[in-house]
Every structure is written in C-alpha cells, then in structure tokens.
Amino acid sequence: MNRTLYLLLTGAAVILLLAVMADGSGDLSGRGSGVLDAHRLEDQAREFSLPDIRRQRVSLRDLRGQWLLVNFWATWCEPCIDELPHLVALAREFRGQPLRLLLVAADDDPAAVAGLAARFAAHPADKSLATLVRATARMLRGELDNVLVLSDPGGTEARRWGTEKFPETYLVSPQGRRTAWFIGPKPWGTPRAFKELRRLMDSSRPPAAATASPPAGSSGRDVSSGDPAFPK
Question: How far apart are CA 95 and CA 77, in angstroms?
C-alpha cells in the first residue's frame, strides 16, 4: 500500500474512532441539520442502468422495494477514499435490513476500482488497521451482500442526478423517490449517523407503512472491532 493511501486510511480510522467516542444525540428537524447534514428532497430518482464490477447491468428500477443509499464517488477523490471505511461500517450496521448501498464510481477506467481494492488488500503493518483495510477491500470487490459497486465512466449519471462534486450521496425510498441529499464525505460509520439515517427513513415512509425496528443486538460499534461479516 502506498504512503498516500496509508495516511488517508489512518486519518479516516482516527476520525471514525473519535466520532464514535464523541457521539451524541442529534436532530433532523430541518434542512442541513444533524451530523449527516441532510438536505431534504422530494422528487423521483432518475433511472439508470450501469454495469457492476462483474460487468452485469444493474437497473435502479430493479431495486425498487428497498431503501437505497446512492453514493457518487471516484478513486482519484481523496475525500471519497476517506469516506470508504465509514461506508463499510454502515453496511455492517444495516446488514439484513432493507437498505442497500450503491457505490457509483465516476472513473473513466472501470478497472480503477479493482486497482484501489488491491491497494487496500495490501495490508499495512499496523495490526490495528488490518480489519478495516480488509473490509474496505472486500466492499470494493463486491463481496458485501448489501453493497453494489457500479461504474459510471465520466460521471454521466452523477451529473444527471445533479451531482457537482464528489462524494455526494442520495437516499432513495422503496418507491423510487429521492428523500435526502448529502454533500461531501459523512461520518456514516458512527452510532449517531445510524440513528439519523433510520430517522430519515422512518420520517419518509408512507403513513400506512410499518416502521422497522433495529435488529436485536445492534451494537453501533466502529468498524475496527471484530465481526463475522468482516472477518480478519
């Protein structure tokens, strides 16, 4: 792993740990509030069909019926790389629940994501980061069952969605409507972020829909702790 990537990952791990330690309650009662700084939306998500890392087409329409967190990013974007460990932690927290992450890479060369995964897989000597690094590599290789890694060469679909800089993320309801927009990297891997995201999802449900409860035993720990879904 080169020094730049190592420093970015180390910084992300430290920020994630500090965010967990300093975690508190938050409020989403308006635009740009809370740790996720959510901007409310209420419009139909633009359809797209993009290849995943195995070159199989994935249509947004085919994913209806579950919540989607659509993250537009690129491997050359340092804030995007900094955000990846947080997304790993988020994927673990919501595993088995009706939320799927879509990581849409805007690199001109689709192979860039595989290259980044290989760099993450070359673990640093620091054992405290080993689980974090390996879990991030697994996510980028498409090995987490609630994460899809898609290719959007040149960022065409990102621009059509209104994205002007990376990373930007959108929460899409099971009915295919965008309900929230997140500009820039976010501390997705913290208990407070988990709580705010669930609150956003609950507040956007149709009145007749039942509110899903967090699974028993949900810990809200940071991604560096052990977990069967993210083996060492």
Answer: 27
